[in-house]
Amino acid sequence: MAETDNNDGAPAGLPAPLQGALWMVLGGACFASMTVVIRHQTADMNPFEVAFFRNLFGVLVMLPWLWRVGFSGLRTQRLGLHGIRAVVGLVAMTCWFVAISMMPVAEATALSFTTPLFATIGAALFLGEVVKARRWSATVIGFLGALVILRPTDMHLDQGAILALVASAFMSIAVLLVKSLSRTEKPSVIVLYMGLIMTPLSLIPATFFWTAPALDDLVWFIAMGLFATGGQLSMVRAFSVAEVTAVLPFDFSRLLFAAALGYVFFAEQPDMWTWVAAAAIFSATLYTAHREARAAKRYRPVAAAITETIIQDEDPET
Asked: What is the distance of C-alpha 184 from the center of its chain?
């Protein structure tokens, strides 16, 4: 058996950037697989119901942790902000699930890369952060890439693509709220409160479109939860063993996996402009992360906010 590093589980002797890259690629594969499962389930089941089961299984995953720490783990003085974060996250999740049901997997994944760009705008408008010209330029380039994917013709815009952008916008708000919560709350508490609030809230719209799930549906929901958890753990591990700017480029693998799985399972073939637009959006995102990392070295750590942005591509489970 190969010797492994006690801290990260990767083979001993591998450089930290390589370990981080491998974890990032694994995370990309997990998230792309989860997106395909969502697309599969929304073919016969309403996205609102799929979102409910996603939240339900997310809470079930957290129950062992709650059992271990007891109800003292729920102690918080910011319940109101937890509630706002959960509502925003639920809007992002439902918009994302509906978008996936309406458009190719690769295109939806490409548009999800706009989340950090929306976060840049939100940080400038609502948190008073100073955003200089180069970051604004990168943000503009990223949104121009999104317009290439939208390709409006005769004043008609694809509803699925619009919903994917709306999901990214609300996701960016969730990122900023988590950034605020993380100053006083543990990550596990944030995740658990999100699930405890979002599960009953998501059940309300789901009841209007309810269809009794079959046994094989439950298998798919378990797979969705496993892929989500695996993706989160992999990306958190990637950022823990290497610099953000060293591993972030490998997040583009998420689009490669999404395109491959979309072709295999749904016969979807992204055109050249989708790839060009995705490259523009992701380059802008990468530059934004690079500037964040430089600011973190000069002032205070903000890598957690970047990590939160990346791991919420299609599901606000952090």
From this structure: 22
